[in-house]
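Holo prediction. Input below; ligand is magnesium ion.
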Amino acid sequence: MTRNKLQHIKLLAIDADDTLWDNQTHFDTAQDLYCKLLAPWADEQAIRNSLYKVECRNMPLTGYGTKAFILSMIENAIGMTDSKIPAEAIQKILDIGMDILNMSAKPFPGVRETLAELFNSGKYKIVCFTKGDAIEQEEKFMKSGLTDVFHDIYVTSDKDDKEFERLCFYNGVKPSEMVSIGNSFKSDIHPIVTLGGYGIHIPYKRMWQYEHTEEYQHDHVIQVRQFSDILNYL
Ligand SMILES: [Mg+2]
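Structure of the complex:
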């Protein structure tokens, strides 16, 4: 994809977690601590597998985010310990989860400068488009210090083609007039491409199991190494 191909673009929809700031490391650390806590009752891989199953089963009711993750950790701990887990250990699980909620959301290097340049160019409406728990995502957005280089933020329960269509409708653009930028091919790239829009994929070193998907080449998709590389195309 060349820079010329994106000359007509009006809307940039930028993912938050693991695109603007690190998120997955906090969840991975939490899971490591959780496995250590439950080590007297089960082996690590069994705990991880079982927790993932519980998370997936709960997702239609609880959605994404840390609070949903905490509930799944507790439910799984009760199940894996045959209801023997002491209240002190449940408290530790809550503490592990609260540490994620208190994460710093410090932008990756180059993110602020890149967004400022795009924002000041006046060429685009720039929105943060993220799935998850509304309060949690908005809180991270505020903590990131990036609110002045975005026009708006949209938090949705999922990022599928219906949500991308809705985002376009709210902003008065066609899908072909927007670029979605993010780390997850499944959530940030595939849905917009199926609608005729464009995607800039910035893979991150860590990926939640749930986001794994088959990636493919497409003439509306470009992959870059770091956030500031998007300036080569916009
Ligand atoms: Mg992400």
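The domain at 3-21+106-232 is CATH 3.40.50.1000 (Rossmann fold). That is the main takeaway for now.
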